[in-house]
Amino acid sequence: MAAESISRPTGAKVIALALQQLGVKVIFGLVGIPVVQIAEEAIGLGIRFIAFRNEQACSYAATAYGYLTGRPGVCLVVGGPGVLHAMAGIGNSSINAWPMLLLAGSCETHLVTKGGFQELDAISLLTPHVKLATRPCLDSLPQSITNAYRSAWYGRPGTGFVDLPADVIQGRPDENVPETRIVAAAPRAGVDPERLADVAELLRSAKAPLIVFGKGAAYAQAEHTIRKLIDNTGIPFLPTPMGKGVLPDSHPLNTSSARSAALKNADVVLVLGARLNWILHFGDEPKWAADVKLIQVDISAEEIGKNNGDAEHGIVGDINVVVPQITAALEGFQYDHASPYMQALQASKAKNEANAAKTVQIVKSPMGYHQVFDVIKRTLNKLSPPEDGNVVYISEGANTMDISRSAFPLEHPRLRMDAGTHATMGVGLGYAIAAHAAYNNPEAEAQSGPSASARKKVVCLEGDSAFGFSMPEVETMARYNMDILIFVVNNGGIYHGDSEEEDQWLKLQENTQQGQKGGLRSTSLGWEVGYEKMAEMCGGKGYLVRTGEELQRATEEGFNSKTPVVVNVIIESGSSKKLEFAWQKSGAKK
Ligand code: ADP
Ligand code: MG
Question: Which residue ranges does the record assign to the Thiamine pyrophosphate enzyme central domain (predicted)?
Answer without folding.
Answer: 197-325
